[in-house]
Design the sequence.
């Protein structure tokens, strides 16, 4: 286990307070639990030098009046602090660290639980149940899109795949010029990005590709396409990836939020509250509002909801233990699904833009199965330090030191180009030159995962800059079983029995289209989204490129996720079909509503920042146009989709917003004292 991680874990052990009670000795909710919980939490707060007290009747009445609480349920504890950060993920953790370091007393509120590395499940079903939103997939209302989002201390950073892209230049330009947020294009954001990448240990060399990523790179290169090493925040020595980053990194080598920003925040006296659900931001009218903001923050109402029982959305057993965090600043960082829900529960409307403009980077997977004559790659037989040098960011070279993203325009393939490419003959190219090791094995679960990417079909630096990236997804058997088409028990059994010789290629689209987040009857988020026609066309284009490159690598069977007898094509032996005919069918069929499962792991834009109060929820400094003291620090604030994986952008945005808010706050204190 990495020493950095062990040090961070030591800090967190003293700073994470579970509202469920001490580990191994949970509070007894059925018999006098409220009193017991109040005593336990008051003592925990006192031990850390915080002020907390039971809510007296008078105070209860005031809190209930302020929040117009129709349920009239009592609030049990009042805690005073300077700022509450609701959500402990990519954005929340960074905001907490910056604010705590600036001397503020910070409470981090996380609805789920903390699992130290040594207690991580390392088991797919348990991992999904305890570390993911809705214990697996949160789906859109119609079931058309399956959304993966982390729900654990550290949010998505704890369970994500470690890709760490600096915000592409064309996105920064767009956010500045089209959305009126000038600082994204200047050195204010540069500084934030660099500080984030430094703390996260982002690197694009020093690791070796996993065998499946080598299949991907070679497959694309066989097609004459760009592929390169993914920038990552994992410090594992070459060949030592744990393969479990989707359920927390058991070796502690991935620099997730708990091991970096949250530990830093706690070193500066922040406290993380877990199994603590942010119910509502409490506001009151301002005495003398000047300009836009007629209301101001007075605190955040939080409920204990047992995790993971609360994921189903029912809100957990009654009566919930409630804490009022009294403060004049709240940072909303519940992620792009949770933040609009929190704002809507709090009566923040953002001129009708709260919950609108949701972006998902809709994704597809294509797959290829290899036969015994496929000569497998050894983990690490190709490394990121080889001839493929990548620097993330639009102006940097992306492949082989020869090709920059700018240079890619002549090679950008349109659907017509891809359709016109003669499909390579699998027979003649199926043996690759790497050393054999276990005939036919692709090695999906060995070596460094998610370590290669391609922007061949993306339109970075061109036209409207939309279009998909491609990579090799991290997939474990349970999720793959759920996604593979089921046309018959025999077909599904065969596909699953051949997983160790299957390569999966992921396609994720920078979406032009958008969806929305609304509240259901329980006050929980519900999501509406389906990719628009142009986005579906782009995804199909990349799927075809992926399928062709799998043919070029010698796959003996290729397919998509579409629920249809036509979803796969046998290329050799019994049942072999004409591959060009099959690809024409895939192009024609495209991504079909409720027949092709669309996936998402990147939610963004549902409470966007912008320069125009009529078109955005938060101003360019990240403060609400409506409520003074309400800030945003997560992916919901993105003015549009990033195209590249969003974690570093969310962190840099949070860094920028929190740094400005801390400066403004100390300036106000200074002026007051003068
Ligand atoms: C499987 C997977 C793989 C990914 N891989 C990558 C990758 O390789 N690179 C990359 O850049 N991005 C990746 N992402 C996306 C990335 O992790 C997210 O974009 C990022 O974490 C979002 O940051 P955030 O701050 O907006 O929200 P999150 O990190 O999701 O944090 C939000 C937190 O708020 C909590 N919360 C929600 N509602 C409440 C409430 N009412 N009260 C209290 N707490 C609440 C949630 O439990 C969660 O912990 C991946 C995501 C997934 C799911």
Sequence:
């Amino acid at each position: 286990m990495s020493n950095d991680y062990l040090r961070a874990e030591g800090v967190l052990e003293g700073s994470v307070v579970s509202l469920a009670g001490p580990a191994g000795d949970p509070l007894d909710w059925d018999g006098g639990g409220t009193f017991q919980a109040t005593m336990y939490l008051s003592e925990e707060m006192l031990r850390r030098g915080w002020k907390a007290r039971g809510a007296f009747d008078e105070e209860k009445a005031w809190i209930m009046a302020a929040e117009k609480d129709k349920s009239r349920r009592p609030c049990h504890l009042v805690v005073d602090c300077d700022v509450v950060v609701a959500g402990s993920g990519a954005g929340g953790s960074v905001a907490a660290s910056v604010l705590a370091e600036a001397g503020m007393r910070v409470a981090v509120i996380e609805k789920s639980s903390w699992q130290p590395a040594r207690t991580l499940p390392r088991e797919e079903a348990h991992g999904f149940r305890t570390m993911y939103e809705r214990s697996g997939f949160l789906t859109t209302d119609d079931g058309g899109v399956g959304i993966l989002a982390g729900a654990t201390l550290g949010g998505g950073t704890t369970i994500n795949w470690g890709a760490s892209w600096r915000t592409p230049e064309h996105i920064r330009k767009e956010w500045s010029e089209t959305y009126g947020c000038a600082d994204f294009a200047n050195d204010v954001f540069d500084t934030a990005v660099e500080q984030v990448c430094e703390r996260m240990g982002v690197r694009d060399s020093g690791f070796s590709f996993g065998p499946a990523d080598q299949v991907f790179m070679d497959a694309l290169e066989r097609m004459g396409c760009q592929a390169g090493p993914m920038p990552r925040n994992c410090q594992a020595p070459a060949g030592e990836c744990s393969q479990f980053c989707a359920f927390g990194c058991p070796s502690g080598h991935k620099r997730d939020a708990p091991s970096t920003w949250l530990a830093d925040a706690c070193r500066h006296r922040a406290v993380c509250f877990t199994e603590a659900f942010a119910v509502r931001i409490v506001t009151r009218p301002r005495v003398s509002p000047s300009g836009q903001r007629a209301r101001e923050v007075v605190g955040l109402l939080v409920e204990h909801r047992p995790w993971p029982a609360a994921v189903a959305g029912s809100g957990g057993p009654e009566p919930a233990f409630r804490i009022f965090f009294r403060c004049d600043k709240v940072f909303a960082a519940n992620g792009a699904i949770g933040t609009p829900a929190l704002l809507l529960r709090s009566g923040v409307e953002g001129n009708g833009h709260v919950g609108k403009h949701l972006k998902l980077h809709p994704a597809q997977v294509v797959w290829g199965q290899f036969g015994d004559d496929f000569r497998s790659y050894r983990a690490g037989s190709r490394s990121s330090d080889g001839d493929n040098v990548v620097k993330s960011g639009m102006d940097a070279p992306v492949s082989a030191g020869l090709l920059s993203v700018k240079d890619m325009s002549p090679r950008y393939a349109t659907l017509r180009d891809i359709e016109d490419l003669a499909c390579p003959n699998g027979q003649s190219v199926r043996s690759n030159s790497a050393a054999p090791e276990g005939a036919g094995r692709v090695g999906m679960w060995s070596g460094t995962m998610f370590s290669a990417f391609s922007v061949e079909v993306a339109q970075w630096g061109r036209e409207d800059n939309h279009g998909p990236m491609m990579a090799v997804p991290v997939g474990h058997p349970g999720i793959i079983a759920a996604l593979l088409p089921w046309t018959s028990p025999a077909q599904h059994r065969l596909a699953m029995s051949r997983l160790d010789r299957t390569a999966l290629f992921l396609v994720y689209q920078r979406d032009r289209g958008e969806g929305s987040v609304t509240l259901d009857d329980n006050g929980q988020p519900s999501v509406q989204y389906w990719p628009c026609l142009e986005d579906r066309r782009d995804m199909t284009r990349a799927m075809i490129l992926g399928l062709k490159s799998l043919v070029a690598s010698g796959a003996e069977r290729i397919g998509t996720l579409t629920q249809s007898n036509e979803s796969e094509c046998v290329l050799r032996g019994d049942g072999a079909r004409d591959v060009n005919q099959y690809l024409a069918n895939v192009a024609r069929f495209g991504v079909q509503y409720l027949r092709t499962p669309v996936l998402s792991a990147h939610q963004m834009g549902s409470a966007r920042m912008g320069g125009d109060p009529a078109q955005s929820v938060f101003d360019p400094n990240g403060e609400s146009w409506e409520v003074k003291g309400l800030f945003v620090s997560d992916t919901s604030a993105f003015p549009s989709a990033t195209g590249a994986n969003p974690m570093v952008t969310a962190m840099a945005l949070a860094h920028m917003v929190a740094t400005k808010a801390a400066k403004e706050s100390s300036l106000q204190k200074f002026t007051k004292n003068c």
